[in-house]
Write a structure and sequence with these properties.
155 residues, alpha+beta, Trna Endonuclease, Chain: A, domain 1, three-stranded antiparallel sheet, 3 helices, 18% helix, globular
């Protein structure tokens, strides 16, 4: 059994992934904070200079062909969908290969709302249009951006 399969619930695994994100961001000298409770759309705040970004952390473990499926929808108990007014950035962790994707929320929640996507951390996808998220692989530079700069990515 793989270590990520030993969590008792997806919620428990999600909390662990949030801790992994906070550790990686802190290692890169960003100030991180964790919201109290589950009522907000974002999981973690990241402060850099005058910027404060709201990060929703997701994870993927299910390999499908060459990639890993990662969903970008709220937990089934939440009534509202995510919006760019609530989240600035998605941090998606592909657990089996220890790879992060930092994707602006405007890309996933913009004109063409995406409920999820395939991420290809090991092998490049066959179809050309599947490359669109590879520019966000290990894109920790996104944490240096302002909310306004991140919004431009979804246009």
């Amino acid at each position: 059994m793989k270590y990520w399969e030993k969590f008792r619930s997806l919620k428990e695994r999600g909390e662990w992934v949030e801790l992994q994100f906070m550790a990686e961001a802190a290692r890169r000298r960003f100030a991180v904070c964790r919201r109290w409770g589950d009522s907000a759309a974002y999981d973690v705040g990241v402060e850099h200079g005058p910027n404060f970004l709201r990060i929703q952390v997701k994870s993927a473990t299910c390999q499908m062909g060459r990639g890993y499926w990662c969903g970008f929808v709220p937990h089934y108990n939440k009534k509202e969908d995510y919006s760019v007014k609530q989240i600035d950035l998605f941090a998606a962790y592909v657990i089996p290969v220890n790879v992060w994707y930092l994707i602006p929320a405007s890309v996933m929640l913009g004109k063409r709302r995406r409920k999820g996507t395939m991420l290809y951390p090991l092998e490049l996808p066959v179809r050309k249009n599947s490359f669109r998220y590879e520019c966000y692989r290990e894109a920790w530079r996104m944490l240096n951006k302002s909310r306004r700069e991140l919004m431009r990515y979804g246009r």
